[in-house]
Structures are given as structure tokens and as C-alpha cells.
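Hi Y.,

Following your request, here is the sequence exactly as I used it, all 398 residues.
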Amino acid sequence: MKKLPFLTMIATGRLTGARYWTLLLAFFCVCAPVRAADVQSKAKQFDRYFRQLLKEKEIPGGAYVIVDGDKVVAMDTYGVRVRGKRGRVDTHTVFRLASVSKTFAGSMAAVLAHEEKFDWRDRVVNFVPELRFKTRSLSRELKIEHLLSHSSGLTPNAYDNYLEDDKPLSKILPKFANIDPRCKPGKCYGYQNVLFSLIEDVILQTTGVSYERQLERRFFTPLKMKDASVGWERFMASDNRAAPHVQTGRGWRAVKVEREYYFAAPAAGVNASISDMAQWLKAQMGYYPKVLSPEVIQDITTERVETRRHMRHRIWRDHLSHAGYGLGWRLYTMGDDRIIYHGGWVAGFRAAVAYSEKQKIGIAILMNAESRAIADLTANFVIDITGNGELVRAMVNH
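Below is the corresponding structure, written out as C-alpha cells. Let me know if you'd prefer a different format.
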């Protein structure tokens, strides 16, 4: 007898009785949407892992949030704002986001591009005429999208050392006249902070509104990110801020808050609490469409350049089949899912944010110490909730 498809067999009455109910149950178990992870259970496991790792590394303070769709599943904190002092980290303690700031710049630029304030293919020299490469024709090939996707073609981190010496961009830009990209703009990846931050000039000139004010009006206020701000002055004005800590032979030591990288605000100038990051995750996953439309989210998470070397990272390498960069976001392919991710590291702070595009489960972590533990925490959580590994095993093997 010719075998008929399951649904045809039902329609023709050739499947009845106990076999009917057995196969019907199996059909819905396979075809109906099934959550890949018990998020509440995973969150509890993560909390144990988070505390275990921060205690082991003697990290002064940190915070995390786990978001499932538009709901906060877990949000908690650890430790103190300043080592040796009593003030504890809470859900409104402000941290520097470092390069996680790039997710705000990419998103803000995309919102304005979709409002036709400028086009991704516009030349950067139209807005920043003082930018010149050694071969001047290459300067004219640099487009706005190349800034936000790190595809200028320049050697990675060009002139970051000047940022670290607290030099403003106006003093750094003339240096680019001494060098050329190693490939044509748009053809290869090279992570940048100085060039990335030129989007601030584009935004000001095309809207007449400062980058800081745009973030406040378009993101911070409507998303009720009450602790978020831009810049050194705003960070220092907060009474509930975390101090940066660096590792010494005697453990973690609190240091002063440097102005470095605040001069490159789109690249590393945003400050926020873990409560703020819960809102930012929801917006990025599509739950505030009036702030970030589906079209904007699709734009910023569309790959502009491949980042093959990121597939060799010690934690991710066994799980990724592809890595690329969109507009302010890293894009990692893991099985049939994509992880939208960014990390940040600057002068005594670490930050990370990531979410599963398929499951709409996300995590953000903030620390007031330059510890690599944040990479373990973020990657192992993502690997766990996507079904590509087990967090419990990571805890045991750690």
C-alpha cells in the first residue's frame, strides 16, 4: 500500500483509534512552537554562575538583567560601587557602557536615515571635510555606512592611542592624512573608535540637534531610561555611580574616571544602569516599535562586513558558523539562530549585551572592573538558552 502523508490519512479516514491519537500528539509536539529553554530555570542557574564567578574573581561590583520578550525575567546586582566602601550596587547604579555605546549610535543613525535625513551612501567628507587619507581619492570613497560597520578599510583601532591620551577628535583627524586604508572602504573589517564617532558630526549637521540631545529625546525619554546619559560630566554628576577598578598585584583598585573615549561619544560615551539596559534590550528585540521600527532593526542587524576572526574566540569558536558586523552590532550565527551582540571595555569598566534573534531572549551585564569574566558569562548564557550547550556544565568545568 502506498504510504499517505499524515494529514491525508486523517482526511480519508485511514488513520483511527489509538494510532490516530499517538501520531496526532507526536505531530503537534514536532510542529507546534516549543520554547527551547525554561527561561526561569536558566535565569536561576545564571544567577548562581554570575555570583560564583564574580566572587571567585573578587570583582567589586556588577549587575545583570535577563529579558524574555517584553518581560524582565531576572534583574539583580552584586557587590559595591567602590571597593572598600559600603555603598552597594543597585539596579539604578550607573556604569560606563564603553563600546556598547555603539549600539545606540548605530540605532540613532538608522532612525534618522529612515527619516531621510541622510543616506547610508553619502560621503563622509561632505560632513567632515577635514578628514583626508594619504591617497585623497580614497577619502571620497568613505561612506556613512562604512563608519558604523567598521568597514573603512583602515588598520584596526587607528589612533585610539590619542583618545587614550585625552585628545579631542579635532586634534586626531589630521593624523589620517598620513595613512591609507589597507583595502577599499566596504571591502574588509577593521574595528574603529575615532572614525565611528564621526557619525556625531553627520547627525548634528543633518538635523541641527546634538547627538546627546537626540539620544535623550528619541531613546532615553520614551524608553524611560531614567539613569542613562552621555558624557563624562553627566556620569560624574550622578550620586549613584560605580567607580572604575583596575587589577593590581594586591587585587582590584579603584581609579579616577578618565575622560578618555568620552571624546568619542558615539563609540564609547553612553552611561546607563542595568534598569536602563532592560529597556534597551526590549527595544532592540522589537517591543517598542514607535522607538525602533521593525525596518530600523532589520537595517542595523543586516550584515555589512564579515568578521571571520571573531569565530576563533575561545568560547564562541565551537558554536559559530558565521560572524559579521551590522551597524553598531556584532552578528553571530549559531545553529539556526543569530545572536545580536556587543561588548565594551574601557578604563575600569566592562559591559555586554546580547539577544537571540529567534527566541527573543536577551541579557545585559555591567561590571566596574576590567575582568574577562564578562565574556564567559555572556557567551555561556547564550549558548545555554539556544540549546547549544549547558550552563551547568560551564559552571562545573570553570
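Residues 1-12, 20-34 have pLDDT under 50 and may be disordered.

Thanks again,
Q.
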